[in-house]
Specification:
Low-confidence stretches: none
Largest sheet: none
Number of helices: 4
Radius of gyration: 19 Å
Order of helices and strands: HHHH
Structural class: mainly alpha
Shape: elongated
Mean pLDDT: 88
Length: 86
């Protein structure tokens, strides 16, 4: 991969592009922090459910909760504290 970065400015081969994309995606996933992964896997879903409930009760601002990174992180960490590490 390092050689490709040094030698090639634009990847023309579809196969090479696909292989490199897969490698980069796996590296990105491996380097992702546990909290960030939990935010994606758990926190976002919890925020969506809570915002729908609050919106059904008349809270107009609740629809923005799913985009609030702090709220999603809070829910993920609370979930982690309640059930333990994955």
């Amino acid at each position: 991969m390092d050689l490709v970065i040094r030698v090639v400015e634009r990847i023309r081969s579809r196969l090479l592009r696909r292989v490199l994309s897969a490698v980069v995606a796996k590296l990105a996933e491996a380097l992702e922090s546990p909290v960030r992964r939990l935010m994606r896997d758990v926190g976002s879903g919890l925020a969506l459910r809570l915002s729908r409930i609050a919106a059904s009760w008349g809270n107009r601002q609740a629809v923005t909760w799913t985009q609030n990174v702090g709220f999603v992180r809070y829910l993920a960490v609370m979930h982690l504290n309640a059930v333990g590490p994955p």
